[in-house]
Request: fold
Amino acid sequence: MKYIVHIEIDPTVGKEMEDNPQRIQELIAKWQAHDPIGMYFSLVRRTVTVIVEADNEDAFFAALHATWRTTKSYPDVHPVGDVDEFPEMLKRAGVGG
Reply:
């Protein structure tokens, strides 16, 4: 399943992260380990958008948890799929047979 993960970084937390670049590198490494389809950094806001296919949901949730611990807020997570994946997404949500 593919997910779009949108991470917004509070200005106060962003300053703390900027003062400790290792935290930023660790966070990016967690998401890079998933070989993301795309990873986009906003130039005008402290936001990161990651598009990832999560074959291993345990590792995916570990990356979400690391993000929460680093940014002190939980990212927005949106499951997405193409037209071929949509029926399976409905089944996982308990819709249809």
